[in-house]
Amino acid sequence: xxxxxxxxADTAAPKTLTDIAYARLRADIIGGRHPAxxxxxxxxxxxxxxxxxxxxxxxxxxxxSEGFVVTVGQRGFRVAPVSVEDLDDITDMRITxxxxxxxxxxxxxxxxxxxxxxxxxxxxxKAETGEEFDFAAWEERNRAFHETxxxxxxxxxxxxxxxxLYDQHKRYRNISLxxxxxVPRDVHQEHQRIYQAALARDADTLCTETQSHxxxxxxxxxxxxxxx
Length: 228
Hints:
By secondary structure, this protein is mainly alpha-helical.
């Protein structure tokens, strides 16, 4: 039976000051509060986050290992730069891992997994078809839907690396949302096709629809990067 837990250890609830610093910095980098190439001066971060230098440095080192931060010289840090080449690499790797995880989930997913998929899609549909669109609610439910689909995957390492790539992709998507006009797109219909293929246990269609869904997002983001 598949475990209902879908989050890697790094995204668990913060327990130490380093965990708190890591979670807050990570969210702010992904969300765009700290833009690409921005300097991350520990003395400024201490003031902004109300945390000490040691947990902040440890958090920045963890974020460096995930590719969200790069080191400058001996002790400095910057937000990782963005590029079309990097976006393409992240997209390709996310697709590779996600499709593998989807096939494993379809093979291993039991009735409990299927019930979680139904519930996640229902919540996502409410966010996408409601009268007033709440982006924060949609963001949370969109992630839950995609993560639930692969939650029966047998490989914790695959799940862990996929979670990092998902957030790297999300960082790029947020850049495009902040700097460009919305592109007409029926995301709900895309999710509906993914959902229907999952319930039908049609692995080939599920993978085709998921790959198209991810690449549409990447194509929109790439167009924004090319005119920056």
